[in-house]
Amino acid sequence: MTKENAKADPPEEYGNKLKKIIEEFGLDMDTENLSSLEETNTDTDELVEKVKKMSQEIQTEQEKKSKHEEDIKADSLMNQIESHFEYEDTYKKEKETVDDHDTVLDPIHTPVYLNYRAYKRMVGYAQRYANKNLDMKNWKEVYGILIGTVEEKTLVVIKDALPIVVGGPTGVELEPIHYVDLSQIDASIYEKAIQDKKTDFVIGWWHTHPGFGYFFSEVDSYTHLGYQIPNPYAVGLIYDHCEHREDFLGVAGLRLTEPDEGLLSDYKTIELHFDRELEEINPKIKKLVDKIAKNMDNVLEQLNYVENTLRKKALAQLQRNYGLILVPKRDIKVVDDEEEAEEDEDKLYIWDPDFYKKSYRIPKFREKIENEILNCEIILKELLEKEQMKKFEEKKEKFRKKIQKMLEKANEWYELAMEDYKNKVEVIYPFYDYLDTTERKKMENFEERIGEYYNILECLNIRSEFNLEKKT
After folding, report:
1. Which of 7, 69, 122, 251 keeps 20 to 30 A from 306, CA to CA?
2. What does pLDDT average to in each consecutive run of 10 residues of the chain (472 residues)?
3. What pLDDT is attached to residue 9?
4. What is the 3-state secondary structure (H, E, C) of the chain?
């Protein structure tokens, strides 16, 4: 239909055609543009051309608007988060050079990125003490700390969640030993961060609310103040296995809104992100929880064996029969004089029985070995000075065999203890992440003690070779 032979459409038909064309073009016309078209009573072809022209104008404006929004979004926090990665190996968040006023968020509102390792460690420990297969009256809360960093003052990244202690049905109370543990953990994290050139630190804490949801009790607020006052980005995560579903991972993050007001402060939930899709996380977590439930009794049995049999019996017997570790006396002298203190410290690296006897009880076996080695060294050094090399080599071999014979049983017992421990570790280690500080201490105490014994034993083994050199 051309303009020359076109007949004006009646207003009602024109209105219907207008709506139909608009729908076909998928336009979302505003009131002003719609009115301008309705006022024009013209033929359909002309109407189509006008709508096309207006569509192009609107599309152009929408593209400009969309680009503007994308530019803004590119500067926002959410565009800096890569939705799929595993920390250390695949986390490659690009840092953009932007003005502070574009990136710095109020710490209260700064979102949190929860690494899968931290999440599974938290859930794995939590569900040891509260799960659907355990009688509700036996459910217990647990407590732990969060390790992470603050990225560009726009994102808190949680890399690990350390289990600390299990409490009762409605709360967790820390004992003095746990504060010591926390202090040691904090120091070790700091040292490792310096060594690895990272900025990791204790970024917050986590605990469970089995069956009663997400909120800060008065005790929780008091606990969180200890984290948020020195660090406004501090995070408090709460896990409730009853809220863990196919469409929700059962964890929420909270911060105090006005920490300066202390216990009067309210709290708010934090925007929380994960490094994997929910559909990937849930099946893995289910397998993990089932595996922990199946094996944990055996793991705890092996831990008790390490504590009660290896450390308290085998290692104690080794120390009694072939003692090498010096035992501090109760009345150790406290030295105020700096020069005297440095002199005493130097003697720790040189066998000086007169010095050790002041502060330590020296095991008879250690004293016998040390004295024998010293006597042998004196004879060999004299032969070296006299350049009697043949006699030196003969005596050296004789003394080497003698000392090594004295150390033979100590070496055998040490190897037996370590072999037994390695067998237990093979059972424990796959579940080490889901042990709390008390349980981990059972391994650490043994390793520390046997390590101390080994260092002395290995030093004596080396010295028994009598690799002496003539003084020049």
Report:
1. 122
2. 41 53 51 47 57 62 52 37 36 38 73 96 97 94 94 92 88 69 70 70 94 94 93 96 95 96 94 93 96 97 97 93 85 42 43 67 92 95 92 95 97 96 96 95 94 96 90 64
3. 45
4. CCCCCCCCCCHHHHHHHHHHHHHHHCCCCCHHHHHHHHCCCCCHHHHHHHHHHHHHHHHHHHHHHHHHHHHHHHHCCHHHCCCCCCCCCCCCCCCCCCCHHHHCCCHHHCCEEECHHHHHHHHHHHCCCCCCCCCHHHCCCEEEEEEEEEECCCEEEEEEEEEEEECCCCCCCCCHHHHHHHHHHHHHHHHHHHHCCCCCEEEEEEEECCCCCCCCCHHHHHHHHHHHCCCCCCEEEEEEEEEEECCEEEEEEEEECCHHHHHHCCEEEECEEECCCHHHHHHHHHHHHHHHHHHHHHHHHHHHHHHHHHHHHHHHHHHHHCCCCCEECCCCCCCCCHHHHHHHHHHCCCCCHHHHHHHEECCHHHHHHHHHHHHHHHHHHHHHHCCCHHHHHHHHHHHHHHHHHHHHHHHHHHHHHHHHHHHHHHHHHHHHHHCCHHHHHHHHHHHHHHHHHHHHHHHHHHHCCCCCCCCC
Name the residue with tokens 């967790």: 172
Q: What per-residue confidence (pLDDT) applies to 153?
A: 86
Q: Which CATH number is 100-276 given?
A: 3.40.140.10
Which pLDDT score, from 0 to 100, does residue 159 have?
94
Looking at residue 170, what is its pLDDT?
73
> Residue ranges per domain, the chain?
11-75, 100-276, 298-325+363-463
* Geometric angle at alpha carbon 46, from 44 and 52, rounded to 5°: 100
CA–CA dist 334, 376 (Å, integer): 35
pLDDT of residue 361: 82
The pLDDT of residue 335 = 39
Distances (CA, A) of 253 to 127, 207, 331: 18, 11, 50
